[in-house]
Design brief:
17 helices; 42% helix; 13 strands; 17% strand; 358 residues; alpha/beta; six-stranded parallel sheet; seven-stranded parallel sheet
Length: 358
């Protein structure tokens, strides 16, 4: 039985155990899962420590010495590399590669990226003029990421899913995204809730752990985000007669979930069943979540939500880009409060766009 090592992209949750198919992998491999969060992002570990799923395959790496000790006592023939890219993670990869391991990368669950146009470059030029320090820092971060990507250990084999996926290797396996497996398990199951509702796909917009891991700013603050969102939801419920179910993002800490009753002010929230909620909904509300794929697979109309704060952040272009790919409607929750919501205007689906979404 070959030894398989999984390098985690961040915190390891029960949902990760399921979606990575650990039970299936264990039938053919001796599996070990390395969590570098305590070493690379100690503050994040302190905040989410209670949420980590510590199965028997799980190993926590708290510092450089522990990693080197692991290397001295363990041999891994195959490595699934899910780590982000930075100076430290490249060092980790180089240490592992010295043992002639086979590196295996995933390039799936991607959001399609739009092509840059003249407007994009004019906007960038204008940003440099009005906010030179912030823009220069942003450009520096991009260049730094490109540098580390260039020096990253190249994968021996890549699993690619969707037309937007790219792989710098001739050895690749074409596959579908992880969400499709969930869809196949759900598509023939009977509808549980017969009462019509709308579902909002939460993205943990304020507290997502990946912000810390990737070193990026959160797009919006708690005070900016939740009051506007709740105000819009209550207007939506009143005018469409559809209750809104807030589908909590899987990477939401228990600390944040405990705050949701106060933050959502009566809006119903549900944890751990986002795909089912989308399947049984009348309409799906979201910003730029990859769970858009479930709405497309289940043929649900989608309304994209943005706001003044989101439009002024890196999230704004993502929302606009994703809406263009499916020819979806966008509502600015800060600007549409006075305008009545006629749900009939939002229930059309561009079937040709849905068919070729990838």
């Amino acid at each position: 039985m070959k030894n398989l090592l999984i390098l985690l992209p961040g915190l390891f949750l029960k949902s990760d155990y399921d979606r990575f198919g650990i039970e299936i992998l264990k039938k053919n491999f001796s599996v070990k899962i390395l969590d570098f969060t305590p070493w690379l992002s100690p503050m994040l570990r302190d905040s989410f420590g209670k949420d980590i799923y510590k199965c028997e395959e799980y190993i926590s790496i708290n510092n450089k010495s522990e990693f080197l000790n692991f290397l001295n006592h363990n041999k891994s023939e195959i490595i699934i590399d899910l780590l982000h890219v930075c100076k430290k993670t490249n060092w980790i990869r180089n240490k592992l590669k010295k043992n002639n391991n086979i590196f295996f990368n995933f390039n799936i669950n991607l959001i399609p990226s739009g092509k840059k146009n003249l407007y994009h470059y004019l906007k960038l030029s204008f940003s440099i003029f009005i906010r030179p320090k912030k823009t220069i820092l942003f450009i520096f971060q991009i260049l730094k990421k490109k540098y580390y990507n260039f020096h990253k250990v190249k994968a021996d084999l890549v699993l690619v899913g969707g037309l937007d996926a790219k792989a710098k290797t001739s050895k690749k396996i074409n596959a579908h995204c992880m969400d499709y497996d969930i869809y196949l398990n759900l598509k023939n199951k009977p509808k549980i809730n017969n009462k019509p509702y709308a579902v909002f796909v939460d993205e943990n917009m304020v507290h997502h752990p990946d912000y810390n891991i990737l070193g990026i700013d959160k797009p919006v603050t708690e005070k900016e985000y939740y009051p506007s969102l709740v105000k819009f939801f209550k207007k939506f419920e009143n005018e469409t007669k559809l209750p809104v179910y807030f589908a909590v993002h899987p990477k939401t800490s228990n600390e944040v979930i405990n705050k949701l009753p106060n933050l959502l002010q009566g809006i119903v929230y549900k944890v751990g069943n986002t795909p089912e909620l989308i399947k049984n909904s009348e309409v799906t509300l979201l910003h730029a979540s990859t769970s858009l794929s479930f709405a497309i697979l289940f043929n649900k109309p989608v309304i994209f939500l943005t706001s003044k704060s989101l439009n002024n952040s890196w999230m704004g272009p993502r929302v606009n880009n994703l809406a263009k790919f499916v020819n979806g409607n966008i509502i600015n929750i800060d600007q549409s409060i006075e305008k009545k919501i006629d749900l009939k205007n939002f229930l059309n689906i561009d079937t040709s766009k849905y068919k070729y979404y990838s």
